[in-house]
Amino acid sequence: MMQNNPFKKNTAYYLTEPFVFRKRVEPFHLGSKGQAVLKTLKSAICGSDLQYYLGQKAKEKLKQRLPVIPLHEGVCLNLATGKRVVPVAGDLTQVPKEFKGRENIYPGLPYMGSTADGLARHYLTYPKELLVSVPDNVGDDLACLVEPLSIIFHSLNTVIPQHYHRIAIVGDGTMSYLLAMVLHSYYQLPKPLLTVYGIWDSKLAKFSEFANTINTDTQDVEGQADIIFEAVGGPEMQRTLDVCLKLCAPGSLIGIIGISDSRPSLAVSKLVNWGVTIKGLTRSTYFDYKQSLTYMADYKMQKYLQKFIHPRQFTINSATDLKEAFDFAVETHAPGRILISFPV
């Protein structure tokens, strides 16, 4: 064990039940030699965090996993090196050898904010090999987008879209924006081949440079796509999958990025007769994190990414502060990740 613990106590925020946070001051343990001591600088509230907060996860999951320290998107300071790092949210070091090379899809993967404690605390220890260095020209705000951006790169590295593919994105939130942005700027997908389907005109307007847009509340769902990404999840999964199925062409692939514990019904005959493939794409790898930070270091890309950071940010000194931030994230329909910091 490491010696000379200078911290002794640590402040952490637990989600103890839906809608309820508790602030705890507890002993801080430095951990093993292979772990680094990190100070949380900033974090972002993800849709999956909100599902736990709102009690939208399956009852058995809530019973097993709460209380938990939430949040998995963020940037930390490595106190040993003085450098900023992004921790890979899934602890890939805890995966059995038989999953080597595909650690990210191990069913029992400890994942920050759900099956392992997350970033809503002043200090934490984490495996050194799962820390990705942040370039000097990438600020803390942008670094909070590395985890969701890594999921986008993982999704596209898995699906491998071609320049002639017709692509549809169902959803108008942060993940959809990042996906459209990478398809436009990295894959050079022409705008006529990309369509985004959502329900908020204010959010859809953000996509105008990259894609055509359709508001499914006011416009008919028309057209067909070779690749359809579902990027909403949660309680809306039935609705969004219905849109995905309407957009299917023979041989289409539906890539699911959204997370949900709901059990939507599907028109199986269409899936079978048309040879439609459904693939889960959520969990990313260490390589995807590194690729995301390389992409993010490009100043041209930063101007796009900056658009999806919400102007209102929160400083957390109490459980009430954290609840206010989560309530704001639930209620606001403005585009962009809500960022929070935990000053010592």
UniProtKB/TrEMBL annotation:
The keyword Ribonucleoprotein does not apply. InterPro entries: GroES-like_sf, NAD(P)-bd_dom_sf, Zn_alcohol_dh. Keywords: Oxidoreductase. One of its GO terms (molecular function) is oxidoreductase activity. The keyword Cytoplasm does not apply. Signal peptide: none annotated. This is Dehydrogenase. It comes from Candidatus Amesbacteria bacterium GW2011_GWA2_47_11b.
